[in-house]
Amino acid sequence: MAALGVITLFLTGFMLVYYGYLSRHTEKDVSLFMSVGLISMVMNLCTNSAGTFMIAILYLVVAVAFLGLGFLVSTDGSIAFYTSIGPWFKQTFTDTALIGWKILSFVLAPVGIVLFFVYYNSKPDFAKTCGACGIWGLLVWLLLLWMILGLVL
């Protein structure tokens, strides 16, 4: 059952990214979906911490239902999101000049944040890339820490 809690956590994270894309690239208001997704993410983490994994089925149903409702909100935006995943992976992982800096900034989040401030004036694109990877890395590390400590304790 712990695996269901972890899978639901990642699916809820994917749902938040999906609705974040829809809010940015369409004119639709998806604030309700984002709010429920954030609440579901925090409650799922708390549920995993408490060790009561049966309620994770509810979070799974909410995440799957919201991913399906995204097509009703904006069919064109949903299709654009799913078709943009492949090119995003290709662009992110084939940029050999920055891949090392991206990985470093993601894995060691404080380094990415420091690189942002160091290169902000001289190399703004490089600084933005390192800063974004550092912030995402920090968020992922915090979520992983919360998830792992919740499952272990």
Please describe what this structure looks like:
This protein is 85% helix and 0% strand. With 153 residues, it is mostly helical. Helix 1 runs antiparallel to helix 2, helix 5 (99-107) packs parallel to helix 7 (124-152) and helix 6 (109-118) runs antiparallel to helix 7 (124-152). It is globular, with a radius of gyration of 17 Å.
Please state the average pLDDT score.
85
Order of helices and strands: HHHHHHH
Q: Major sheet: size, sense and barrel closure?
A: none
Distance separating the two termini: 16 Å
Number of strands: 0
The residue ranges in which pLDDT falls below 50 over 5 or more consecutive positions are: none
**Content of β-strand:** under 5%
- Helical residues, percent: over 70%
Give the CA-based shape: globular
Structural class: mainly alpha
Helical segment tally?
7
Summarize the structure.
The protein contains 7 helices and no strands. With 153 residues, the chain is mainly alpha-helical. Helix 2 runs antiparallel to helix 3, helix 5 (99-107) crosses helix 6 (109-118) and helix 6 runs antiparallel to helix 7 (124-152).
Protein traits:
153 residues; mainly alpha; 85% helix
Write the layout of secondary structure elements.
Blueprint: H1 2-25, H2 31-50, H3 56-73, H4 75-94, H5 99-107, H6 109-118, H7 124-152
Helix pairs in contact: 1-2, 1-3, 2-3, 2-7, 3-4, 5-6, 5-7, 6-7
